[in-house]
């Protein structure tokens, strides 16, 4: 590493400062951010993320991502089955493997893919994968399909899940879910022994406007389990029966009047957790065990998408009617069971036609734990951070091609999976402590300053972004230069750690180095206004 220890300087101080100004002004104008996907320019992003990188492309149209108990990253796609990757905290994903697929039959609504994937460690069955095989999505409410929630095992460990010929489980535990081509069973979430499934509404307006011509039709409107978060409260109740189809469902032929999803106390059945959603897509728990969900809102009349925190039996105010059986929110059995008495407003409004979808939390550091992170598929095509208390919204990254999911990796980094352009996954490297805490001591101090100055003008291109960061590359361009000093200066001003900025200069014992430090900070002052906070994407 080049040192900042310099030979004796004989030129007058004012001449050195002028030279530093000229050099800094010249170099400040040369830096520019890359195109395409990039991190946003704000303090929340700058002080909490090292950069963003593409870690896999041609994944398939990403619908949901999750980590398996084996440490692999599993990706449910819309059209390419379910795939897995070997995962490491740095570098690209590797060893792409198709772990589940099926033959497509588009005319009959069958897609080779799933909108949901989740894992459960069953005390009897071992590791079980749950998926929600997808149906077509041309947004035609008159096309009715039956959808399933399926569980699979891989007992021989060959990476192919659900091979019946090898004695593995491939069971549709709920196979009587009547959805339309408008919305379907979306992402899945498992916490402890409980499975949560978001199921979209059957209609555009929750049954308030007739979707079918002619006589009233029981398919024109909602069923108990549609437009709702559903759950199987105890998956271990299903451990003893691995062959019976629909063991967690209800054998109903009259869905529009079946109240059992509201009234059943059977913890092994798929029942309603909360209601009042149009299309509920993303599901995630925060560190306080609170469940959060995104809702794609109404188009007629047009309303902005919403972020909700949802408790058992909450209603989130989207209509739930049926043209034949009437308004579910007036159903005596459902109300007697405790539903439709607690109504919940959204925590945040996310924009018209946004298609707010996957969401996640990270505990990489204390500041980030205060936010919900979610992606918008349509309007924005970005990653947002929403303050859990105030609902304030901050853009974290933008320029994606229809992002549909975001999750946290085991280190607290965020992974964004996009549906468009063949499917691609990006990693946002999150800081585990205060920004610019280069020695990872938990606070900003003179030791951090010394690391920064000792590596000034170093080429760190042979290192990973996290490694380069610890040597003073604060903006992710794999160089320690005046822009990083500008960010360090801003971090000191924002986060504290020194009595004054002058303490940094005064802490350098050699007079020649002190002069150079003054020059650096002149550059830093200018670079605060001219710098690129992040150098964008590195593919």
TrEMBL record:
<dbReference type="InterPro" id="IPR011041">
    <property type="entry name" value="Quinoprot_gluc/sorb_DH_b-prop"/>
</dbReference>
<dbReference type="InterPro" id="IPR011042">
    <property type="entry name" value="6-blade_b-propeller_TolB-like"/>
</dbReference>
<protein>
    <submittedName>
        <fullName>Uncharacterized protein</fullName>
    </submittedName>
</protein>
């Amino acid at each position: 590493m080049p040192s900042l220890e310099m030979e004796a300087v004989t030129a007058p101080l004012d001449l050195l400062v002028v030279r530093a100004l000229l050099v800094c002004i010249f170099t400040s104008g040369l830096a520019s951010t890359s195109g395409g996907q990039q991190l946003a320019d704000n303090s929340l992003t700058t002080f909490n993320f090292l950069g963003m990188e593409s870690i896999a492309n041609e994944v398939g149209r990403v619908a949901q991502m999750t980590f398996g108990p084996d440490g692999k990253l599993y990706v449910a796609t819309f059209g390419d089955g379910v795939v897995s990757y070997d995962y490491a905290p740095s570098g690209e994903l590797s060893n792409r493997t198709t772990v589940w697929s099926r033959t497509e039959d588009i005319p009959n609504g069958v897609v080779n893919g799933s909108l949901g994937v989740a894992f459960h460690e069953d005390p009897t069955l071992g590791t079980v994968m749950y998926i929600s095989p997808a149906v077509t999505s041309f947004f035609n409410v008159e096309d009715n399909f039956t959808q399933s929630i399926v569980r699979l095992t891989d007992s021989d460990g060959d990476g192919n899940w659900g091979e019946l010929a090898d004695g593995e489980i491939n069971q549709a535990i709920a196979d009587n879910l009547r959805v339309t081509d408008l919305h379907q069973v979306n992402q899945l979430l498992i916490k402890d022994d409980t499975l949560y499934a978001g199921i979209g509404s059957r209609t555009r307006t929750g049954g308030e406007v007739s979707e079918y011509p002619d006589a009233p039709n029981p398919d024109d409107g909602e069923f108990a389990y549609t437009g709702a978060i559903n759950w199987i409260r105890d998956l271990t109740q299903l451990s003893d029966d691995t062959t019976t189809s629909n063991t967690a469902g209800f054998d109903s032929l009259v869905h529009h009047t079946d109240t059992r999803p509201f009234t059943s106390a059977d913890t092994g059945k798929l029942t309603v957790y909360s209601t009042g959603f149009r299309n509920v897509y993303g599901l995630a728990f925060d560190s306080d065990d609170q469940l959060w969900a995104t809702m794609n809102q109404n188009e007629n009349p047009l309303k902005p998408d919403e972020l909700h925190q949802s408790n058992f039996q909450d209603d989130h105010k989207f209509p739930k009617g049926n043209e034949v059986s009437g308004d579910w929110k007036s159903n005596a059995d459902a109300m007697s069971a405790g539903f439709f008495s607690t109504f919940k407003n959204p925590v945040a409004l996310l924009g018209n036609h946004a298609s707010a979808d996957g969401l996640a939390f990270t505990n990489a550091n204390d500041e980030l734990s205060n936010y919900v992170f979610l992606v918008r598929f349509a309007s924005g095509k970005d990653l947002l951070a929403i303050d859990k208390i105030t609902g304030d919204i901050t853009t974290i990254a933008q320029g994606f091609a229809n992002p549909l999911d975001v999750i946290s990796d085991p280190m607290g980094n965020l992974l964004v999976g996009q549906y468009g352009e063949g499917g691609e996954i990006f990693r946002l490297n999150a800081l585990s402590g205060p920004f610019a805490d280069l020695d990872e001591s938990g606070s900003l101090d003179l030791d951090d300053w010394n690391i920064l100055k000792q590596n000034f003008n170093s080429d760190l291109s042979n290192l990973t972004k996290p490694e380069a960061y610890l040597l003073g590359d604060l903006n992710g361009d794999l160089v320690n230069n005046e822009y990083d000093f500008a960010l360090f200066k801003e971090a000191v001003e924002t986060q504290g750690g020194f009595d004054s900025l002058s303490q940094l200069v005064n802490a350098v014992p050699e007079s020649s180095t002190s002069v150079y430090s003054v020059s650096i900070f002149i550059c830093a002052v200018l670079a605060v206004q001219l710098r690129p906070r992040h150098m964008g994407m590195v593919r």
